[in-house]
Each structure stands twice: as structure tokens, then as C-alpha cells.
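=== RUN LOG ===
request id: a7f3
mode: sequence -> structure
chains: 1
length: 142
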Amino acid sequence: MTIGGEDGGRGDMPIGGFQNVVRIRPVLGHDPDEMCVSWDTEKGNVRVEGQGFVNREYEGFPLVLDPDTTQQEAFEKMRVPELIDKVLEGFHTTIMAYGQTGSGKTHTVMGGTKELDGIVPQAVVTLFKKLHNVLLSLTTVT
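=== RESULT ===
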């Protein structure tokens, strides 16, 4: 199983072990006029540049999500349903958000309204749907 895939990242890293996924948040009203981050979703590269920054390029991320990525797309491209399947098989799984203040961690993980649900609310709904289906299959009378 790989993370990423045809339309979102290189998709050449198996799920398992530690992996980095980068999500670029949209520019907000209080941000400077110029964006200081550029990215290449095909190559999995991110470049940080601009005034007051040391210009750096980071390469080889298995998945880079651009600012237009919806919460649902992020959930699917990060393969969270497959990780939930692994949890149900007895494996330990962790999704951690790390970044600077204001970088979009809470938005990605928790979200906002129903249409903007983040990873945690979507994961809980998915987990309970999968558990419900397992219970139905165990209690079906033939």
C-alpha cells in the first residue's frame, strides 16, 4: 500500500514506518502579499524562500498537498481509511500534525463546520461505520 498516488504525490512509499506529508495552507488575509513557499506535487518538493528566511528546498516528500486541497481530499490522499483498517487489524497508527503557529495544523486535524471536518472527525465517523459493518456481518442470521 502506498501513500500519495496518481493525482497526489509520488505514491512510491508504502504505508508503514514514519512518513512526512506536507500540506500547504492557503494564503490568509493577514499574510504578506507574496507567498514564501513554492512546491512541486509531482516531485514531492517544497521550497521556502523570502525576506527573513534562509532559502531552503526540501525534496522527496511522498505527498505534497497544495492550498486547493479540500479536507475530504486530504483525508483520502493521506490514506486515512486504510490506516483505520490497520487499526482494526490490531496495528498501532499515529497521525501527528507539526508546524509553526498559524500553519494550519488545527484546521487540518480538527476542521470547522461539517463541510470542513478535519482528519479526526472524519476518522471517527469512518471508524464507527467500519465497526458497524463488522458487527452487522457477525450478527447476520442465515
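=== NOTES ===
Residues 27 and 35 are 7 Å apart (CA to CA).
The chain has one domain: 2-139.
=== END ===
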